């Protein structure tokens, strides 16, 4: 695997400050929040607990809200006691082959679901459980997002060293880590059509 591809194997999140957001499956609205954060999260095949811990910490402490005096970029969702809506989105791990999306960097569904659920549990433990909402893993979802600002921030978990020997060592360590959680080893083949991750559309409304 080339160094260029290695730099892409990292957890990715699109974090939007929202006035409100909701998730609908079929005709049923399964989750909704008022002001807070909407987080689209893409887990890669090589992510470990270290990546998850980093992302949880960053999401909850990201200072994108104003303080009571109106000073911008000074408080986090936890400071303001606001809500977070998380949605698993493997398409964030997309690599284009020509014009066709390829998702081989995404964690296989059988491993991604417990990994993602554990991240939600960690977020609830670090904050307040009732403030963390979720979509429906594997369902075809419609997201209704009213971006507040607009404010949209991309987060990635830290990449490893660019030294080939260090990268080889990190791959082995991550493989052992996944094996310890009884998950599929990194790079396992997957059928995107059989994936249990969300691939629903996202509609956004901009607050003027």
TrEMBL record:
Q: Does the keyword Electron transport apply?
A: no
Q: Where in the cell is it found?
A: Cytoplasm
Comp. bias intervals (Polar residues): 154-167
State the EC number(s).
Answer: 3.1.1.96
Recorded hits in InterPro entries, A to Z, give: Daa-tRNA_deacyls_DTD, DTD-like_sf
Under PANTHER family, the record lists:
D-AMINOACYL-TRNA DEACYLASE 1, D-TYROSYL-TRNA TYR DEACYLASE
Q: Which family does it belong to?
A: Belongs to the DTD family.
Q: Which protein, by its recorded name, is this?
A: D-aminoacyl-tRNA deacylase
Which species expresses this protein natively?
A: Gouania willdenowi
């Amino acid at each position: 695997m080339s160094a260029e591809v290695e730099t892409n194997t990292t957890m990715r999140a699109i974090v939007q400050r929202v006035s409100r957001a909701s998730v609908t499956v079929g005709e049923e609205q399964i989750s909704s929040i008022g002001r807070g954060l909407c987080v689209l999260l893409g887990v890669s095949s090589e992510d470990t607990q270290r990546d998850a811990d980093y992302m949880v910490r960053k999401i909850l402490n990201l200072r994108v809200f104003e303080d009571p005096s109106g000073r911008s970029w000074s408080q986090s969702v936890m400071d303001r006691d606001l809500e977070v809506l998380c949605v698993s989105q493997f398409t964030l791990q997309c690599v284009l082959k020509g014009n066709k999306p390829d998702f081989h960097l995404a964690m296989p569904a059988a491993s991604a679901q417990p990994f993602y659920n554990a991240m939600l549990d960690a977020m609830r433990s670090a904050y307040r459980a009732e403030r963390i909402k979720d979509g429906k893993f594997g369902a075809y979802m419609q997201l209704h997002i009213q971006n507040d600002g607009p404010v949209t921030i991309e987060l990635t978990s830290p990449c490893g060293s660019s030294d080939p020997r260090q990268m080889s060592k990190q791959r082995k360590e991550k493989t052992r880590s996944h094996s310890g959680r009884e998950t599929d080893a990194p790079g396992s083949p997957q059928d995107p059509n059989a994936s249990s991750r969300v691939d629903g559309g996202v509609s956004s409304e901009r607050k003027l």
